[in-house]
Amino acid sequence: MNLLDYAIIAILGLFVLCGVYKGFMHTALDILCYMICVVFALLMTPILSFRIVQDEDVFNTMLYYTEGSENIYDVEYSKKDITEISNAELEEIYGRSKVAYPMDERIRTNVAEAAFEGENIRTLGDYFNQTMVHVTINILVFLLLFIALRVVLGFLVGWWDYAQPLPVLKKLELPAAIGTGLIRGVLAVFLLFMICPLVLTVLPFDVVSELVENSKLSQFFYNSNFLLGLIPGV
Question: Average of pLDDT values for 41-63?
Answer without folding.
Answer: 91
